[in-house]
Task: structure prediction
Amino acid sequence: MPVRILLADDHRMVRKGLVALLETEDTFEVVGEADDGRVAVQMAGQLQPDVIVMDLRMPNLNGIDATRQILGESPKTKVIGLSANSDSRSATEMLRAGATGYVFKQSAFEELATAIRTVMAGEIYLSPSLADGILADYLKGNGREPGSVFGMLSLREREVLQLISEGRATKEVAAELRVSVKTAETHRRNLMEKLHVESVAELTKYAIREGLTSV
Result:
């Protein structure tokens, strides 16, 4: 049986390049493509792939929180983080979310097939250039910085923050998350109080600085 793979990346050209690469391997089958994190969660539930290659920065829901949600429902699925940035903190958060692999986009074509085989064998694969830094942070156990978005905010608060930073109005946030407008407004107000900011612009700057969105 081929390894069934779901690709999640908001850049169409990246996805198509990875599909072309993976389809040269008889033991791999790309069963789906997602262009944002929330779609990736939905497709993972529908398709039940063996491996998900997950971009960290995607619209609507970032790859770290998408991974956490997917593995909460399907813990046997393997997730490989895919990132354009050599940020050990983001990579460490991806591992905390349950991913068992992490590859740079710059080296994905050389490393991805190896990474997939490695995680399917029950092992962890990390891009060599980042492995030492990730493992050092991960093994600390309490390596989260006090001001980290993943340490300070709940999953729901991070979802609201990302959508706000991507320009969504309160009604749109409420509709996307299937909550009332009043609830969405309460989350926005609580975010501003917790982060000690007074405007949406400041919320957006914080989200970008923390890698929650690339807008």
About this structure: The two ends are 40 Å apart (CA to CA). DSSP finds eleven helices and six strands in the chain. The first strand starts at residue 3 and ends at 8.
